[in-house]
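Quick one:
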Amino acid sequence: MAKPKPLILIVEDDPELAHLISDQLESSGMMTQVHHRAANVTRYLQNNFANLMLLDVNLPDQSGFSLVDTLKKENIDLPIIFLTGNDSESDRVQGLEMGGDDYITKPFSFTELVARINAVLRRAETSKDANITKNATVSEEPFEFQGATVNPERMELAFPDGKTETIGRKELGILSFLNANANTVITRRTLIHGVWGIHADVRSRSLDQYIVKVRGVYQKHGLNLDAFKTIHGVGYIYNTEESGA
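Output:
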């Protein structure tokens, strides 16, 4: 099966340059989506996925750096290569410290641009190898949750009766999210985005089924999840303060 083409967002205020970049990337086996204004990018990424963004630092409605801040607040995460005509060291440092994956100064060769995009895409793919879900990785330390020990590396729950149960990726992600957000009201939408990702198309009924499975495993070993409460019409809370968990 052919590997799907990566989708590259080109955010550049110069239409001629933007479409020239688009033509070069598409001839190199990529798909592209061109935007000239920051506001359009935010709206697009709220509802769509992209593999990487080429981001001009100077946009007509918002700086590229400011756009990155906006995306972070929206919990939108994707690799970014900054494009700029400014070769100042302070701008390069700012871009990289904000989480940019690379910084290219105009003018640039398209051969180099394609090579750098491919390098960032490879790094992004490798960096996610340890991910179990959006919020949990196999390198996460074991943690206690309502009388059982959750071991992300082994994807297991260890119970006081000395027995262990293998747990699925999404169930593990749910426990990890609840543990990290204890004593806070969590909406269903927030929990889904935290575990599946912001662009996930997951129904509340599916979420309920995963939670029922977690409760069932605990009950099998004589434990309950009383501290994990459903707030009707809102979502959930893992209330460790009330239960002493």
